[in-house]
Amino acid sequence: MIPAPFDYVRPASLDEACQVLGEAASSGDDVKVLAGGQSLLPLLRLRLAYPSALVDLGRLPELRGVEDRGDHVFIGALTTHDEVLRSGVVRERIPLVALATATVADPAVRHRGTFGGSMAHADPAGDLPAVALALDCVFVVRSGEGEREIPAAEFFVDYLESALEPGEVLIGVKVPALGPGWGFHYEKFHRTAQAWAIVGVAAAVRRSNGTIEEARIGLTNMGSTPVRARAVEAAIRGVSIAAAGSNGAHDPVRDACAGADEGTSPPSDLHAQPDYRRHLARVLTHRAIGVAGR
Q1: Which CATH architecture has domain 182-292?
Q2: Beta strands 7-9 and 53-56: pairing type?
Q3: Which of 12, 121, 156, 263 is the most exposed place for a label (fewest CB within 10 A)?
Q4: How far apart are CA 260 and CA 263, in angstroms?
């Protein structure tokens, strides 16, 4: 299908992009920001989105790159998934991001799709929003009025809806670099290698003296936004690492993961019913903690 007609704007600077978006917001125009286009272009072709204009950020190199800033790693919004995967800083300082990014679609999509675009798209079936929630990332946005920061817990508002206001553009994400003692894993259940997650689990586990001292668990596709498995995070504290992944008669980790689906509202679609997704959330959380806790 051919997209509905729209104007095309390709600003040469971030200031110009903010100006264009600000003017559109003032006039009430529906304007979409184009980064890699891997999520937006299919919506346009299916006429599920019909903006009056597209603002292409492709000529803004200042929005691309990975920077180690000590307590966090800053990833520019236009950094492609492939660039994220190839970054030694990402692999060494924020390995959970690398693990999840490696599962995004296929190499062709990863060479075009962007880190910031996948976040701003706010698809709960996307892999990276759950990682951002688990790691307590901070989103840096810019408008004609200046910059502001949005915590991940406040960024994902609803299905395909973020906290970005009209006239704002995401310029990058601050990803906390957790210290020694942390282990990570991203567990994903999907139909094919290129498919969206039916359910995914992002796990960060801090180990000390043979026990799990802290866990952060983000769930993919278990509601209209990514979800933190708070019940599991509370129940897993103090559990022996040796018990993680145990197949014995009593597995305290499995017991803790029984609450993985608490507070979730999993969708029903052609691929899975809510009760199946709830089951997957419990099983995959157990697996993810078992690997991250090693």
Answers
A1: 2-Layer Sandwich (3.30)
A2: parallel
A3: 12
A4: 9
Strand partners of residue 76: 172
**Candidate CATH numbers 3.60.120.10, 1.10.1040.10, 3.30.465.10, 3.20.20.20; the one for domain 61-176:** 3.30.465.10
Computed from CA positions of residues 192, 228, 176, 65, in that sequence, does the dihedral angle turn out positive or negative?
A: positive
DSSP string, 167-224: T-EEEEEEEE---TTEEEEEEEE-SSTTSPPSEEEEEEEEEETTEEEEEEEEEESSSS
Closest-CA residue to 18 (of 174, 166, 172): 166
Q: Quick: pLDDT tens for 122-178.
A: 999 999 999 999 999 999 999 999 999 999 999 999 999 999 999 999 999 999 999
Q: How far apart are CA 95 and CA 16, in angstroms?
A: 35
Chain segment 10-28, per-residue pLDDT in tens: 999 999 999 999 999 999 9
Fill in the DSSP letter of residue 104. S
- Closest-CA residue to 141 (of 17, 258, 249, 262): 17
- CB burial readout 55-84, b (16+ within 10 A) else e: bbbeebeebbebebeeebbbbbbbbbbbbb
User: Residue 110: in which H helix or E strand, if any?
Assistant: helix 107-112
First to last CA, the chain: 49
- Is the whole-model pTM more than 0.85? yes
Annotated domain spans of the chain = 7-56, 61-176, 182-292
Residue 271 has φ and ψ, to the nearest 5°, of -95, -30
Tokens linked to 244: 């993680």
